[in-house]
Amino acid sequence: MTLLFLILFSSCAVMFPRQNGEVKIVEIHGTVHKPYCGGARPSPDVAAGYYEPMNGQSFNVYQGAEFSVDLPIIRKFTFDQEGNATLKLLPGNYVIMHADKLLPLDEFVAKNGVAPNEHYKIKDAGCFNEWKNTVDLYLQVINDTLIEFRPKAKCWVGTNPCMEYVGPPAP
Questions:
Q1: pTM for the complete prediction?
Q2: Which of 9, 42, 46, 167 fits a 20 to 30 Å CA distance from 102?
Q3: Domain locations in the chain?
């Protein structure tokens, strides 16, 4: 009887293969490229800019190949001091977006940017709303993987595409 049960069970497993639900390890190293923003004549190394770890920056993970405002957040993570984060995800498609994109414009500016003044201005609410729905990183998980995530900053405003520096040029 036991042998019959094992044969029946084995044949069902062959007919209906299990989905590979094995969790994969995704390691993300996040650094922001900071450009040279003027001043004394730089060496070629300084003129190329530098990379700064994204320590303390938080991101949300959504499951899907495209972002939609109705997608639920399935995971949150924050980069450590060296700009590293480790996620455990099932195989599939994901989008990753900065957690601050969920903040209202005034809270975002207060937390992330220089408040508008004679040297800085906010482009407009339309820019901010478009940016809020822009994916920072598309991710397809198949196997364990290591990702280098390197957004580019602009001089004096960082990675905020809706803040604009209008002050005097660098010497």
A1: 0.79
A2: 167
A3: 21-100+135-160
Least Cα distance to 28 among 167, 139, 166 occurs for 139
Own/partner contacts of 64-73, CB < 8 Å, gap of 24 or more, are 64/93, 64/94, 64/95, 65/93, 65/95, 65/138, 66/95, 66/135, 67/95, 67/97, 67/133, 67/135, 69/133, 71/95
* Nearest alpha carbon to residue 156 among 101, 113, 106, 124: 113
* End-to-end Cα distance, the chain: 88
Domain 21-100+135-160 architecture: Sandwich (2.60)
Query: pLDDT per residue over 114-158, tens digit each?
Result: 666 788 887 887 888 888 899 999 999 999 999 999 999 988 888
Q: Strand pairing of 120-122 and 163-165?
A: antiparallel
